[in-house]
Amino acid sequence: MRQNSSLTAEQRLAAVDLFEQGIGHKAVSSRLNAGEHAVRGLEKRFRIWGRAALESKPTNQVYSFEFKLAVVRQFLDGEATLMELAQRHRLSSPNLLRTWVRTYREQGEDGLRPKTASGAEAGGPTELEKLRRENQRLQAENAYLKKVRALRNQPPR
């Protein structure tokens, strides 16, 4: 279980017992006098992992680029919801997939590629990446010049 969880070990165990009885996170939160946000997160992990959601994991799982891309495309194609895909592929939580989808929408496939330890992409920037950066710079420069032209053409006050 997460080290920074606001739930005590006893609360987590009691919550899982209640989840197994079919009780939802709001009722569990109320019964245990615990934060609803923390209990909802535990319930999401419980739906995926069952009682294993109580165990702490020593390291973060690393997923391949191909796996991330395939799962993101399944979601974007409407094959399943975030929760269903997280359960199907045994992801730690739907939030992980939500992050992959957001990254894919913002940065495209390149955003899902693994990074090196320094945070830079392995092998340095590709020609395509260089062209994309130059394109972004030129678009920003063009927008700036349009704004300057519009300000110049305004009548004096």
Can you describe this structure?
Residues 106-128 are annotated as: Disordered. This is Transposase-like protein. InterPro entries: Homeodomain-like_sf, IS150/IS1296_orfA-like, Transposase_8, WH-like_DNA-bd_sf. It comes from Paeniglutamicibacter sulfureus. This protein has 7 helices and no strands. The protein is an all-alpha fold. It folds into 3 domains: 9-54, no CATH class; 65-112; 127-157. α1 packs across α3 and α2 (25-32) packs across α3 (36-49). The longest helix is centred in the C-terminal third of the chain and has 26 residues, at 127-152. The protein is elongated and about 70 Å long.
Name the poorly predicted regions: none
Class based on secondary structure composition and strand pairing = mainly alpha
* C-alpha-based Rg, rounded: 23 Å
Q: Output the helix-strand order.
A: HHHHHHH
Q: What proportion strand?
A: under 5%
Number of strands: 0
- Enumerate how many helices there are, as a single number: 7
- Name the overall outline: elongated
Distance between the termini: 64 Å
Kindly report the average pLDDT value.
83
Number of domains: 3
Helix content: 55-70%
The biggest sheet, with number of strands, parallel, antiparallel or mixed sense and barrel status, is: none
Region (Disordered): 106-128
InterPro entries: Homeodomain-like_sf, IS150/IS1296_orfA-like, Transposase_8, WH-like_DNA-bd_sf
Organism: Paeniglutamicibacter sulfureus
Protein name: Transposase-like protein
Task: Lay out the secondary structure.
Elements: H1 9-20, H2 25-32, H3 36-49, H4 65-76, H5 82-88, H6 94-107, H7 127-152
